[in-house]
Amino acid sequence: AQKVTQAQTEISVVEKEDVTLDCVYETRDTTYYLFWYKQPPSGELVFLIRRNSFDEQNEISGRYSWNFQKSTSSFNFTITASQVVDSAVYFCALRSSSGSARQLTFGSGTQLTVLP
Amino acid sequence: DAMVIQNPRYQVTQFGKPVTLSCSQTLNHNVMYWYQQKSSQAPKLLFHYYDKDFNNEADTPDNFQSRRPNTSFCFLDIRSPGLGDAAMYLCATSRESRGLGGYTFGSGTRLTVV
Fold first, then answer.
1. How many Cβ pairs closer than 8 A exist between chain A and B?
2. Which residues of chain B make contact with A2, given a CB cutoff of 8 A?
3. Do B45 and A43 touch (CB under 8 A)?
4. Residue A98 has pLDDT above 80, yes or no
5. What is the spatial distance between Cα A28 and Cα A6, in angstroms, rounded to a whole number?
6. What is the DSSP string of A64-105?
7. Which segments of chain B have a pLDDT < 70?
8. Chain A residues within an 8 Å CB radius of B103
9. Which of B55, B96, B103 sits opposite A104 (nearest CB)?
10. What's the rounded Cα separation, in Å, for the pair B110 and B100?
11. Three-point CA angle A7, A11, A17, nearest 5°
């Protein structure tokens, strides 16, 4: 079985603050992918990043950065200098090679509100 | 641009009246998925097609059916919508071969049942 936990249901920050969204996952597989998606109020799921289980190198893309640590089964997402447009629900998801092999398992999401 | 397109963006249907949601893709991906997302919840997989092979999730209600007439199109049929079926329905695709593919999502169809 696989599971993704996003313990933070809601986070509010003031614009320009940094914010980290936590994601902890469980899987028995050695081969898997982790994802982050952004879902603005309009509803579409916007792909942010995919990371495979063999690549623990952290990644930075503009104001976004991701910290993947297999030792703690975590894949945290940090937004630096947050902006109002970052307000959305953020989902962490896991795709592994076993079980219902093609299922993307989502966490419950974190609602991020960035206040002006 | 290659993409996943869902029509319509918003759908209102009457209680018990069959409704069909459509999804098309220009990515030539061999796997297509339907997810249901209720308010403030994570998306939940209903079923997927691997090429022509249909795979139903164990807890997907019988009220939900799907058709995939060709690689590009996939339909979600709700035979007798109930109030509890009001949700966002998301279509996604992936390319599966020897490795695990990434997903591309459509913009979703928000279904209202009145």
1. 59
2. none
3. no
4. no
5. 19
6. EEEEEEGGGTEEEEEESS--GGG-EEEEEEEEESSSSTTPPE
7. 1-2, 97-101
8. 35, 47, 95, 104
9. B103
10. 29
11. 125
